[in-house]
């Protein structure tokens, strides 16, 4: 016997079958975004890049140190003009490219290099001017995931390998703007006074141990999973935006031990910002005295929402704001600031020469 077509079973079945489809469309609105994981091939690509850097650097290191006393070698490399590598990490257009064009406008290529890591899953406008052909082989990135650490290590390694004259590595995002001229920044980093006294350069990286949320962040990958490599006493937090010396960049590239832990996926994504912990924790464990513990990139955390800092919009942008953002509690000025909304560009361009690049 055939059941009548109007059986209540059919609509029920249809409803049941369509549930997974409905869930598929609605779930992203209710669940936190799924974390992308780092695939083995991606991991191997990075390792082979890192091995090249380590091989090159150790070859050069032994040559340097068998022939020249350290001080003389450092001075002679200064005479050859060391460079700053600007590492742009982005997942959108570089909104302030025109400001950066002016920042680099009168600077010889002998003083800097640019490298861009852009999420290949996002379509960005063609890169022009100083940014043309500066894209490095990039992989997918996602907020609150170790993919940001990978991207930063990839930038460091690519820059180290590309040019042995890269002596400092400054991480910049598409929301960052410069607060001073290139020359001001360059003379600050390559301080001839330090050099003549044969003092080693320091990295400018924020390293804090007094954050109220630190315990949650330490356990964001599961309870005790960071042990034995990273004890809670060693765990640090700091701004993602660093300026590292070549020596510290190499430490980062050589690291396997901490990466094994920091690459673990976050179970609690709301307390997990791996890129704000990996670099400060590692450098604090390995060479704390050669780190400023301060960042050079100003950010405003007042009234932050969902882990995002205050974003500046055009009504707030003024010469006074630039002067205020430069002021720091340390002995030196801030060099960069974030986050600015893209529509601040015109106002910033109007005060580029008269205010921002005046020194
Ligand atoms: C380091 O080694 C590479 C490859 O051997 C070479 O091209 C480069 O000039 C060397 N750099 C220094 C600073 O000696
Ligand atoms: C670059 O040089 C030009 C011409 O000398 C000058 O007008 C301009 O202010 C300089 N720009 C910067 C950013 O230093
Ligand atoms: C920081 O952001 C708050 C709003 O969240 C604003 O009132 C304040 O002026 C900002 N501070 C600076 C120095 O820009
Ligand atoms: C300087 O320190 C004071 C006191 O801790 C703090 O209120 C202020 O926000 C700090 N200023 C900057 C620019 O970080």
UniProtKB/TrEMBL annotation:
It is a single-pass type II membrane protein. InterPro entries: BC10-like, Glyco_trans_14. It holds the Pfam family Branch. GO terms for molecular function: glycosyltransferase activity. It comes from Dorcoceras hygrometricum. Keywords: Glycoprotein, Glycosyltransferase, Membrane, Transferase, Transmembrane, Transmembrane helix. Coiled coil: none annotated. It is found in: Membrane. This is Core-2/I-branching beta-1,6-N-acetylglucosaminyltransferase family protein. Signal peptide: none annotated. The chain crosses the membrane at residues 12-31. One of its GO terms (cellular component) is membrane.
């Amino acid at each position: 016997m055939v059941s009548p077509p109007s059986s209540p079973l059919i609509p029920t079945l249809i409803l049941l079958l369509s549930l997974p489809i409905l869930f598929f469309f609605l779930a992203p609105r209710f669940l936190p975004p799924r974390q992308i994981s780092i695939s083995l091939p991606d991991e191997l690509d990075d390792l082979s890049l890192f091995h090249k850097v380590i091989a090159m650097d150790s070859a050069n290191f032994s040559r340097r140190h068998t022939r020249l006393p350290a001080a003389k070698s450092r001075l002679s490399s200064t005479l050859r003009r060391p460079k700053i590598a600007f590492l742009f990490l982005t997942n959108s257009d570089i909104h302030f490219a025109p400001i950066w064009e002016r920042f680099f406008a009168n600077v010889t290529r002998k003083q800097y290099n640019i490298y861009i890591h852009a999420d290949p899953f996002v379509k960005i406008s063609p890169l022009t001017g100083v940014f043309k052909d500066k894209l490095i082989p990039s992989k997918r990135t996602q907020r609150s995931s170790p993919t940001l650490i990978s991207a930063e290590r990839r930038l460091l390694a690519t820059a180290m390998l590309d040019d042995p004259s890269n002596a400092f590595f400054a991480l910049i995002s598409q929301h960052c703007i410069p607060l001073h001229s290139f020359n001001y920044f360059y003379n600050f980093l390559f301080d001839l006074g330090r050099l003549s006294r044969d003092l080693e350069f320091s990295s400018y990286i924020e390293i804090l141990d007094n954050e109220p949320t630190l315990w949650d962040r330490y356990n964001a990958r599961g309870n005790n999973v960071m042990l034995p490599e990273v004890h809670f006493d060693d765990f640090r937090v700091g701004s993602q935006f660093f300026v590292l010396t070549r020596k510290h960049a190499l430490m980062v590239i050589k690291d396997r031990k901490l990466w094994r832990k920091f690459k673990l996926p976050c179970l609690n994504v709301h307390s997990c910002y791996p890129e704000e912990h990996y670099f400060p924790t590692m450098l604090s464990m390995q060479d704390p005295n050669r780190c400023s513990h301060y960042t050079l990139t100003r950010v405003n955390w007042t009234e932050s929402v969902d882990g995002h800092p205050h974003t500046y919009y055009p009504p707030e942008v003024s010469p006074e704001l630039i002067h205020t953002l430069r002021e720091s509690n340390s002995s030196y000025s801030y060099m960069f600031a974030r986050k600015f909304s893209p529509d601040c560009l015109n106002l910033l361009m109007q005060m580029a020469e008269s205010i921002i690049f005046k020194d």
